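Following up on my earlier thread - several people asked me to post the actual chain instead of describing it. Fair enough. Here it is, all 535 residues.
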Amino acid sequence: MVHRRNMTLIMVGMLSLSLVAAACSKSPSKQDSTGTAASAEGNVNASGFPIVKEPVKLTFFASKSASNLGNWNEALVWQEYKKMTNIDVDFQLVPVEALAEKRNLAFAGGTLPDAFHTARLSSVDLANYGSQGLLIPLNSLIDKYAPNLKQIMSKYPEVKKALTMPDGKIYSFPTLQDPEFLSGIIGSQMWINQKFLDKLGMKEPETTEDLYNYLVAVKTKDPNGNGKADEAPFAAVGLTTIYDQLKGAWGLGNRGNMHPRVDVDPASNKLRFIPADPRHKEVLQYVNRLYKEGLFYKDPLTVNGNDVNAIYPQGIVGAAIGLNPNATISGVSGYAGVGALKGPRGDRLFSRARSFMILPGGFAISRSNKHPEATVRWIDYFYSDEGNKLFRLGVKDVSYVEKDGKVEWAEPLKKDQSQIGKYVTWAGGWYPSMDRQKYVLASENEPENLKVSEKIKPFYPKEVWPEFTYSNAEVAEFKALETDILKYVDEMNTKFITGDAPFSQWDSYVATLKKMGLDRYMSIYEAAYKRYQAN
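Reply from S.P.:
Thanks for posting it. Predicted structure:
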């Protein structure tokens, strides 16, 4: 295990050196001093539209999820914005399944796009590629050309803290939700079949034991009344989602789910590696109980979201975690959102909480870009109210209409929402913008989502961390340690839950984590945490 990690460090170091050398051969600062750069800046209007006086063409690397239908280069929102800005963007779309591979090739291949849009760049990516000169620093450009992001950073200092890399530079525009829009920040919820509850004479679960008793009743008492034992008590997709939903009932995850395996131990006020904590064992034992007693729909290790969506209309799902089925699946109704559950020790915390700063790297500009000022103005618009409205809704009276001060989809899209991708391209998420609740015509804004979010609010962590940043000196060692440690944690979590490893092996499991370098991993984490506090 140690030998493999050392090899990883050597390989990462060699790659870093080669990329640094490539970056030095084409310094952004030298480019900035050319007459071409000066003339490009002179082509930019300081405010208003169009952004540039003479047309500009840019290429953007972008990821496209399966839920995002249509060709972005033909979508109404980008055709309209091209007319507004005088900037023609060619979106070079990559399926999200191949995103990591294609993104890495783009950075390593020498031919960079002008910018990375929806490329899901982490803080580690930004610090790494920024320090190598592959991404350009944006501090002064934001100060001069990005009034909307600048205003957000002033109002919410944690945004600037999270965007600032260890070298003091900002390399990206983030993915944000309005901090007041809790339902949008949370996203997917836990849903329970209200019809089953009524039939069984039970109330919405308040505790983990209540949830267990409900799932047992769904399995054994035929709540759909067809005389068959065909109910799916808990239609769960993956064990990690279940664990992250439940761990707050044991007081774990008190800094939110951007850091799903590290939080603060309230007893010592020090960082805690959750998978080595005795309470983590108790969560696994609870999930093992559900697994062992057949309370999941088939095997959550192999079931996917499409499998669950397909069985909702059959009226057999007792509970699930995901998007609101009442709003997203035709013919389905009667599901209620479940709040944060109380655990056996009295803990009650919504541990699957996200920061409103969903991702630091929603958008980044490469060193190949000859129009960085225009590009910054182009992207900054989407952090304004009117820019978010265009991005989420498209064009008034074409893709949406306004009635009594509220927006709704135009009639053709109401009838067939599968066509939305021809007009706007936000499906799949991770985009550079700041969503406002009033423009979100999606399940997060449904009454039941808002209702359960209010139930969750009292149990939302008081402090939710965004991603931390890691220096160039830290990143290779940190990622190598993290890869090995979390892979082992995931393997053992699965074995403990499925019964392939008895809980009598717990002490041996924790000892192995120590041997793998857990203390060193946590010391680097501590340094990143202190840097975040000091930014």
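The two ends are 35 Å apart (CA to CA). That should answer part of your original question.
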